[in-house]
UniProtKB/TrEMBL annotation:
<dbReference type="GO" id="GO:0000908">
    <property type="term" value="F:taurine dioxygenase activity"/>
</dbReference>
<dbReference type="InterPro" id="IPR003819">
    <property type="entry name" value="TauD/TfdA-like"/>
</dbReference>
<dbReference type="InterPro" id="IPR042098">
    <property type="entry name" value="TauD-like_sf"/>
</dbReference>
<keyword id="KW-0408">Iron</keyword>
<keyword id="KW-0223">Dioxygenase</keyword>
<protein>
    <submittedName>
        <fullName>Taurine catabolism dioxygenase TauD</fullName>
    </submittedName>
</protein>
<dbReference type="GO" id="GO:0005737">
    <property type="term" value="C:cytoplasm"/>
</dbReference>
<dbReference type="Pfam" id="PF02668">
    <property type="entry name" value="TauD"/>
</dbReference>
<keyword id="KW-0560">Oxidoreductase</keyword>
<keyword id="KW-0479">Metal-binding</keyword>
<dbReference type="GO" id="GO:0006790">
    <property type="term" value="P:sulfur compound metabolic process"/>
</dbReference>
<comment type="similarity">
    <text>Belongs to the TfdA dioxygenase family.</text>
</comment>
<dbReference type="InterPro" id="IPR051323">
    <property type="entry name" value="AtsK-like"/>
</dbReference>
<feature type="domain" description="TauD/TfdA-like">
    <location>
        <begin position="17"/>
        <end position="281"/>
    </location>
</feature>
<dbReference type="GO" id="GO:0046872">
    <property type="term" value="F:metal ion binding"/>
</dbReference>
Length: 288
């Protein structure tokens, strides 16, 4: 347990998350924000349990951690009616149309919007309405993923770059503004190139950067077969870790994660129940 004046951070046994106690979303100052930022950078994932805050308070709090990023889904079904900064994640329907993004299906391991030139630095996710079970969110550290690589794999990834196509999403749907590519080789599609091992811009620590899927990813300079084999090893190593924090949501819970050094996934849940989450996203730097 660490204490910064009146705030406490209690680390979870997974070594991936810490609970923050003593923070008042109605009354805080710059010293409190500095302490929260320090905990966020230290642990990668922090949690505020069963808060009772408004959308406006979430937006105001999030603003302290960087400029807002508009998630692609906010331009489609996930837009908030009054706060453009908020992405609504929900399986609710209004007049036969989705009133939020992502539905009730599983979301597999990923780093948020890895296909951006400047992926976001952070995300703040608040539970507005939760089902009685299911929809759990899992977090792991990509610092630990890199640091625990066997020596042979660490040598294989250092200095390498990874290409991510940005034409199709993980479900095979064309992304907003993209057209069906003429080539069958995704390496020739629109995309971004990032380091396979990125150095965190604030902590200086190295983290493995795998994005969100093996499909459409390519380690630059390798054959597709070589790249696929190495990526499969890296994904297996990263996601088979036992150091995973599992968030079983209560209404009002807030999870805040550093997108530069973590990955997360979500369980599916019974569509007979409604799950509503409000998320804000803050800008990040180009990975180096």
């Amino acid at each position: 347990m660490l204490t910064k004046e009146r705030l406490k951070a209690i680390q979870h046994s997974s070594n991936v998350c810490a609970d923050i106690e003593g923070f008042d979303f109605d009354r805080y100052d710059s010293r409190d924000i500095e302490a929260i930022r320090g905990y966020w950078l230290q642990y990668g994932v922090i949690r505020f349990k069963q808060t009772r805050i408004t959308d406006a308070q979430q937006v105001a709090f999030s603003r302290h951690f960087g400029e807002f990023v508009i998630h692609p889904k906010q331009l489609q079904e996930g837009g908030h009616p009054t706060h453009r900064e908020i992405l609504v994640i929900s399986n609710a329907m209004t007049d036969g149309k989705p009133s939020g993004a992502m539905g009730n299906s599983e979301a597999t391991w990923h780093t948020d919007t890895w296909f951006y030139e400047k992926p976001p630095a952070g995300a703040i996710l608040r539970a507005v309405q939760v089902p009685p079970s299911g929809g759990d969110t899992y977090f792991l550290s990509t610092y630990l993923a890199y640091e625990t690589l066997p020596a042979t794999l660490k040598a294989a990834v250092d200095g390498r770059q990874i290409f991510f196509q940005n034409v199709y999403d993980k479900t095979g749907k064309l992304r907003l503004g993209k057209s069906t590519p003429k080539s069958q080789d995704y390496r020739e599609w629109s995309g971004v190139v990032h380091p396979l091992v990125r150095t965190h811009g604030e902590t200086g620590r190295k983290a493995l950067y795998l994005g969100g899927t093996i499909d459409g990813a390519w380690i630059v300079g390798m054959s597709r077969d070589e790249s696929g084999a190495l990526l499969a090893e890296l994904w297996d190593h990263t996601t088979s870790t036992k150091q995973v924090f599992v968030q079983q949501w209560d209404e009002g819970d807030i999870m805040m994660w550093d997108n530069r050094c973590t990955m997360h996934r979500r369980d599916s849940f019974d569509p007979a129940f409604i799950r509503v989450m409000h998320r804000t996203t803050t800008s990040g730097e180009r990975p180096v």
